[in-house]
Write a structure and sequence with these properties.
This protein is mainly β. A hairpin with a 2-residue loop joins strand 13 and strand 14. The protein is elongated and about 65 Å long.
Length: 252
């Protein structure tokens, strides 16, 4: 945001559609926000064959994110001190991208008893099969050519009573909507998609960590669309010999 046009705004009061997203850098000329394309309320609002259009807004903290009443659509006051939001759209050029895999989302989870009731967890994508070189936030959305492997790790961030986890479901969609009717299930009911031979699990001795890989693909109806990865997590008691985590792939 160029400050010369909005000198009356206090950078400390500016946020994106998600109030938690505040300026990353403020200097004498600019107010700069940095966020992944999947964060801070950013939405995909249009697809083209070679590009994707993203939308967000810079607004004053506590302001409504959308104007919904016609009476609020116009006003005749001076702009100074009255500005509520600044909408902006960004086209992401995909002409050189054979298949992007978008920033992943954990959309829901299952809990067993009280274990894991306050645990945080995340999905991380890796460059290699030994899971030693993770993609950084600045690299999303990552560009992976067709028929290449994407390496996925799901891990707890905090642990209470050292719970273990199992990946109950992972699906890919061409939008941020988990229930998008256009979707492809990579993992179903804790097992890899039986019709896909390119999904591989990786053993790890770390409690609360699960890993797998899949081969890149594109959606037929949206060949240039960003791909969103969603996962559901099941918590297990590591002392339970009959838990889903302990039985693993043996019941697939």
């Amino acid at each position: 945001l160029l400050r010369v046009g909005f000198s009356f705004l206090d950078p400390k009061e500016l946020v994106l559609l998600n109030d938690a997203c505040r300026p990353t850098l403020v200097n004498s000329t600019h107010v700069i926000f940095f966020a992944n394309l999947s964060d801070c309320g950013t939405e995909v609002i249009n697809y083209r064959l070679t590009s994707v259009l993203y939308h967000n807004e810079v607004r004053l903290r506590g302001s409504p994110s959308r104007v919904v009443r016609q009476a609020d659509a116009i006003n005749r006051t001076r702009v100074e001190g009255k500005l509520r939001s600044i909408s902006f759209d960004c086209w992401y050029d995909m002409t050189t991208v054979k298949q992007p895999i978008y920033a992943p989302h954990i959309t829901s989870f299952h809990k067993g008893g009280k274990i894991g009731s306050t645990n945080g967890y995340k999905i991380t994508l890796y460059h290699n099969s030994n899971f030693s070189h993770a993609f950084t936030e600045q690299e999303y959305p990552i560009n992976v050519e067709m028929e290449k492997e994407v390496f996925v790790e799901v891990a707890l961030l905090r642990r209470e009573q050292s719970p273990d986890i199992w990946i109950n479901r992972c699906r890919a969609t061409p939008s941020a909507d988990y229930w998008d009717p256009v979707r492809y299930d990579l993992i179903e009911d804790g097992c890899p998609n039986a019709t896909d031979d390119h999904i591989q699990y990786y053993n790890t001795s770390r409690l609360g960590v699960r890993r797998f890989s899949f081969q890149t693909f594109r959606f037929n109806d949206y060949p240039s669309a960003v791909v969103f990865l969603h996962c559901q997590i099941q918590f297990c008691d590591p002392a339970d010999a009959y838990s889903r985590c302990r039985r693993g792939l043996n019941i697939c």
